[in-house]
């Protein structure tokens, strides 16, 4: 009897620990993968260009996905355009984190839709999904664009967890309007990136621990970590994709870009920046970065 009680207590403690770790990783407002980002001086003119972009009129859009009300902000191109770029932000931030990229796409002549993921910014939701839950929402956003503008071409751009989101979405059956995907600083899978940080920060191998947290994630958030595997999605992708990564990325190691590019049979373009840190390659290599994006879209749209 005593042994049974001890086993029950141990199991309860394990469950409580796993649940606590799940909340630490996925609950709205948490920043488990955050840290102090290095200061990066932006190329001359970028701050001014972004400030001007933020003064432009915006239309607020709303959709419902995963039973959450989600918000996005649409900015028309200066001149008539038949293409909209959806920008998908990363972990524990909101759409404002990609304002500088949004102004770049607007400068290139495209309509821009900046969205707040579920559990971020002005959107509803309790839990972040490491790209899996967000990919379901992103598909819904593409369908909303088609509903409003049936002939519109759509480009998906994502950074960090947003990059994982667009890659996971690329493996789905999407509206034919979706023409191209751009990912920056994306990781291979949820398990890979969490395991990397466990080893990097705490010097432990946490694969078994992550399996336990994944079960809690399935119960509470509706998905296993294994469902957020970008390599599996890319194996089903047919859209042209631009893979962008800084070689000094402190949050998502650069080698993951090469592993991702090795998967699937679809048109691929690679970009790297020797000095680029996490999702900030554009800050210090803006001319080449923008030219790479422009050339890619001109080729595949």
Tell me, what's the shape?
globular
Q: Give the quaternary arrangement of the chains.
A: single chain
Mean pLDDT: 91
Given helix and strand content, the structural type is alpha/beta
Our count of domains comes out at 1
Fourth-tier CATH superfamily name: Alpha/Beta hydrolase fold, catalytic domain
What is the CATH top level name? Alpha Beta
CATH architectural grouping? 3-Layer(aba) Sandwich
Write the layout of secondary structure elements.
Elements: H1 2-26, H2 46-54, E1 59-65, E2 68-75, E3 83-88, H3 99-107, E4 111-115, H4 132-148, E5 153-159, H5 161-170, E6 178-184, H6 190-202, H7 207-221, H8 230-234, E7 241-246, H9 255-261, E8 268-273, H10 281-284, H11 286-300
Parallel strand pairs: 3-4, 3-5, 5-6, 6-7, 7-8
Antiparallel strand pairs: 1-2, 2-4
Features:
301 residues, alpha/beta, Rossmann fold, 8 strands, 43% helix
Quick description:
The protein has 301 residues and is of the alpha/beta class. The chain contains 11 helices and 8 strands.
